[in-house]
Amino acid sequence: MSAITTHVLDSGAGRPAAGVEVTLEYRAPSGEWKLLGKSHTDADGRARDLLPETHVLEPGLYALRFDTSSYSKFFPEVVLQFQVDDPQQHYHVPLLLSAHSYTTYRGS
After folding, report:
1. How many whole angstroms separate alpha carbon 68 and alpha carbon 21?
2. Average pLDDT of the residues in 65-93
3. Domains of the chain, start order
């Protein structure tokens, strides 16, 4: 499993959001954002393959970018930035989405 994972739940419809494009980026020390991985959520709304299992995380700022245009015209894209302090941990960052709101949290 990737060191960073996510899943998207369509809370308005009460089911997983399948087929959402997700990209993972890392902000390099230069300040430039670097693309690390790209995936689509599966039938269960999960993106488990954003990074190869052998990828070693570096401490720093990461961003998950979700193309949510098929679920919300109000929020066609959601970007979640989060800090990785301990690269040995697994980071699971879910997105709960509806037509006019979204919520996130650090999962397990």
Report:
1. 8
2. 95
3. 4-104 (2.60.40.180)
